[in-house]
Amino acid sequence: MGKKLWMIFGPLVVAAVVLIGLLFSPFKINRINSIIEKQAATSLSPNILKGDSVKKAALSKKYYVPFFGSSEFSRFDLTHPSVISEKYDWNFRPFLMGAAGTQSLTHFFQMQGVNKQLKNKKAVFVISPQWFVKNGADPQAFSFYFSQLQAVNFLQNQTGNESDRYAARRLLKISRGTEGTNSEVTGALQKVSQGKKLSGTEKTYLKYYKRLLSHEDQLFSDFSLKGGNEDKVNKQLKNLPDNESDSLIRQAITKQAKQQTSSNNFGIKNSFYNQRLKKRIKSFKGMEKNFNYTKSPEFSDFQLVLNQFAKDNTDVLFIIPPVNEKWAKYVGLSENMLNGFNKKINYQLKSQGFNNIVDLSKDGSKRYFMQDTIHLGWNGWFAVDQKIKSFIDEDSKNETHQLNDKFYDTTWQKLDPRDLNTYIKDN
Amino acid sequence: MPSLTPYENPAYFIMLAVAFIPIVIGMLWGKRFHWYEILVSLFFILLTFGGPKFEQGIALIGYLVYEVILVSLYNLYRKKKNDTWVFIIAVLLAIAPLVVVKLTPLLQTGAASIIGFLGISYLTFKAVQTVMEIRDGVLKDFNPWFFLQFMAFFPTISSGPIDRYRRFKKDYDTVPDREKYLGMLEKGLHYIFLGFVYKFMLSYFFGTYLYPKVQHIALQSHGLSWGLLGVMYVYSFYLFFDFAGYSLFAVATSYFMGIETPMNFNQPFKSRNIKEFWNRWHMTLSFWFRDYVYMRLVFFFMKHKTFKNPKTTANITYILNMLLMGFWHGETWYYILYGLIHGVALVVNDWWLGFKKKNPGRFPHNKFTEYFAIFITFNFVCFTFLVFSGFLDKLFFH
Amino acid sequence: MDTKETVLNILADLTGNDVSGSMDENLFDSGLLDSMGTVQLLLQLQTELGIEAPVSEFERSEWDTPNKIIAKVEELQ
């Protein structure tokens, strides 16, 4: 009987022992090479954002500069930072850490695994006004880029201060009802949100759980990486002049943009216009009259990011992109409201000592500045490129930050920008 | 207290393995520890219906108490008398909780009933079947305590396969000899790993990876499109691998406990006609409907000569039977239409087989015609699954 | 008429085939019998031989060949 039992269960036992050994061992399984890093830099893949290993490998090099942002990164036209930096072989390449649907909260959690790499590093952060809607980040979009590894990283980093408590609360709230959450992790998050300390057992559990998750990440996060976006970048290279001259580049931009926006008067790229707008163009008229980006929990989520940057002493260039002005007029998006948003976000940045801001909010009417309704393109990218290049080239200014927890309050989230002056006086 | 959906999580399988060690050792030495089996069952039921899902757990307990009392009372009655109306009332009372649960979302715009829990419809099948066998007099030694264990047998509690009282009792009261039990262990382990491939690889690939993509394509092009065809095939494979994978786990778990729970699937996509398909697809459900709905209705109609022609009887009963199955799935137009289509398909299928039989030699029969039949059946079935998926509802009405 | 003959007659009626030559053939696999046929068989047995066989009694694997059916009928008589 022993032999028969071994024949049945032996292979299972052996396989289990090997797998457990592999997954829980303290050793790092290192298989990230420069080819994977290069692919990952433009992949916009959720697996890269969810994991640590590829980000860690790439960001530990000065060559890769983390770019936080969202859907604008998928607009690979000839002046997209990934394209232009490749064409003229600048001394850095963007490592794109954002895609459609990523907002401040995603960025905060994906930073948790690479704090060490972000230390004293330069970074670029594109703030989309469209994130700042009434309910803030969408739970579905958030869960698409969220992983248990991020949560465990956060739990290991947190020290129980106001900012950590807010983050834990926020995470519990946004991930409520999603499948696949680990109950120990949820329990630990609840403790942090209530300002309690984690017990020794909980810490040990997190340590081993992290080993498991890290090994999974090391083994599989580059699994579905495809070079699709790399091809897009390479295809655009030939559209730039070989000689890096501003006037020649502007000519190339005009050539491409003119050709690709021929179908409409908004200056929107043909493919976007035809696929997403044309059919229902009438219904868009005046549709965004009541859109409001001035009152949102996103302001506090963004504060988490600022807090993390300050902690890591990361030198960040913030970019505030405009909205396509012709389009904004058509859909009735209020200019007043956009100005209000700008005032609020500028105050939140500057009052805490973040002064590297490229504010493009007034450039929405410039020709070929936007690729579609809200996304930077062509001249817009080029304006950004130049700012980024000089930012990377110059020495870090070593800003000092004075962080204020008042930005976690709902009072701030819901503050009407018209009342900003009174608010400043009172606080 | 966490709550784990059965067979969805590595932790669940590890706990199963640990809990089964005493059972396996006992069985190998010819012993069955019923009290330990009950403890294990209780533990896993708690794991499924505890913690955040405790409301479902309470609903389950209430339901079990209700059904045990109901069936026991009917059994007591049946020992003395055998009126048809009492039998009918007993069956109606047995399905009443399920009817309430199924109708609640319809009446209260999508709200779930508080007396519902994962697996209520499968337990109802077991209860109704027990009532019917008591009525027929083939189940003479009904025991409420055993009935409870039969109902709450944890490996199959959430989604079947649907076992039968007498069959289950035969296994439950005996211990397979060592040779046979070793064979069951071997098969069980094989099923578990096959289940992993089905559920965690293939079902994941079709359901989680491909399905959203084809849905997106289909939704963008409105109406009939290649995307919709993709939805149809992808959903069909997803449905099969997901459910067959789950069923393999349930059967394997039963095997470890020395219970030969019947299989649910037998390569359904190679069926040559719809009748054969229902003998291969979700078998314990279709056999249940065959034995407790179809055959009884036919028996009733024939005995009372309701319809002149046996063919008419068969056809009408097919449609009633499949419609009822549609209603059982849920009160939405697409589930009911799904049942109706299959009912009509069975009628057409019977007619075609009869026509062929009456005209021997008129149609060629060879490998090619067989493959052709499989092809037609497969595509038809996939089409009905597209209806079943509810995707058309999303596409046309939302 | 003995039981065997009666059963074979009923089966011949139901299936349209003379099955006396293949007493161990699986009637369900060959498509000669189905659920409908089964019910008819049970009803015929009831009228011709007076056997009360409820549907629950009918376990396919015990009724799938002519020989098994005859054995089952004799057991129930």
Give the helix/strand layout.
The complex is a heterotrimer of chains A (427), B (398) and C (77).
Chain A: H1 2-24, H2 34-43, H3 46-50, H4 53-59, E1 64-68, H5 81-87, E2 93-97, H6 104-111, H7 115-118, E3 122-126, H8 139-145, H9 148-157, H10 162-174, H11 183-193, H12 200-220, H13 228-237, H14 246-260, H15 270-277, H16 281-284, H17 298-312, E4 315-320, H18 325-331, H19 335-350, E5 357-359, H20 378-393, H21 410-413, H22 420-426
Parallel strand pairs in A: 1-2, 1-3, 3-4, 4-5
Chain B: H1 10-28, H2 34-49, H3 54-80, H4 84-107, H5 120-136, H6 144-151, H7 165-172, H8 178-220, H9 226-256, H10 274-278, H11 283-303, H12 310-329, H13 333-358, H14 367-389, H15 391-397
Chain C: H1 3-15, H2 35-49, H3 66-76
Helix pairs in contact in C: 1-2, 1-3
Task: Explain how this protein is built.
The complex is a heterotrimer of chains A (427), B (398) and C (77). By secondary structure, chain A is mostly helical. Chain A has 22 helices and 5 strands. Chain A has helices at 2-24, 34-43, 46-50, 53-59, 81-87, 104-111, 115-118, 139-145, 148-157, 162-174, 183-193, 200-220, 228-237, 246-260, 270-277, 281-284, 298-312, 325-331, 335-350, 378-393, 410-413, 420-426; strands at 64-68, 93-97, 122-126, 315-320, 357-359. Chain A is globular, with a radius of gyration of 23 Å. Chain A starts with a helix and ends with a helix. In chain B, 74% of the residues lie in helices and 0% in strands. The longest helix of chain B is centred in the middle third of the chain and has 43 residues, at 178-220. Chain B is mainly alpha-helical and 398 residues long. Helices cover 51% and strands 0% of the residues of chain C. The interface between B and C is medium-sized, with 22 and 15 residues.
